[in-house]
Amino acid sequence: MESVRNALPAQDVVEDLAQIFGLLADPGRLRLISALLEGGEMCVCDLAAATGHSMSAASHALRLLRVHNVVKVRRSGRQAYYRLADSHVRMLFDLAITHIGHDGRDRGDE
Amino acid sequence: MESVRNALPAQDVVEDLAQIFGLLADPGRLRLISALLEGGEMCVCDLAAATGHSMSAASHALRLLRVHNVVKVRRSGRQAYYRLADSHVRMLFDLAITHIGHDGRDRGDE
DNA sequence: CCTACATATGAATAATCGTGCAAGTATTGT
DNA sequence: ACAATACTTGCACGATTATTCATATGTAGG
Predict the structure, then answer these.
(1) Fewer CB near the terminus (10 Å): N or C of chain A?
(2) Model confidence, pTM
């Protein structure tokens, strides 16, 4: 199984991957993201209202997403308008929903 | 933004999604998964060796993946052979790598 | 039956993560 | 200049999570 070990992605690639998935591993951020998938571009207070976050929580969450290039901001006056940065997230999102849909009742163990 | 709120996925869908992404949000489990993507079917001790886990850590991790239908086991004698349960994971994996590849150095904020 | 081996599991500890609160910055309106 | 609005940020705290150690289960061989 030497060969397999050598074929593994580099340490830092794996860590980046984990980080991306980690960003999507929270229901709150996921609601934020799906609101943006729906709404296109929204300001923080509307996002907070739509997703049930406090402003603070929404801002914290958006910052994380922003730092990791999942969303982008456009600032205008005193509001900040957020949008998704690219389409990968939508694909990940949809793919994961498909996985759930599978409802893989597969019995067998545990 | 009423309309957006109503278009959000149901609470439990979002939670399931978060859980799936959560499973992929750990470098250790990701190494396990990519070893399986490479190796096809492997026993726990080879997986542990290939990914740098202790046997115990590998077993814990595999159990998580197993419970959530990401991997399946086949037991033969005293070993347990694990394989990926379906192809969604591979797609999520590849899609996320594409996202990284983007290397979206996009400056702007933070 | 007894020992060795492969894996699984539980409990405990340590690290990480999300949220609220309070204070800070920037922008608009009076 | 002052107050109000929209958002951001640091900190502290509770909750979740990963890892290790010790023990358990199950199988194979002597």
Answers:
(1) C
(2) 0.87
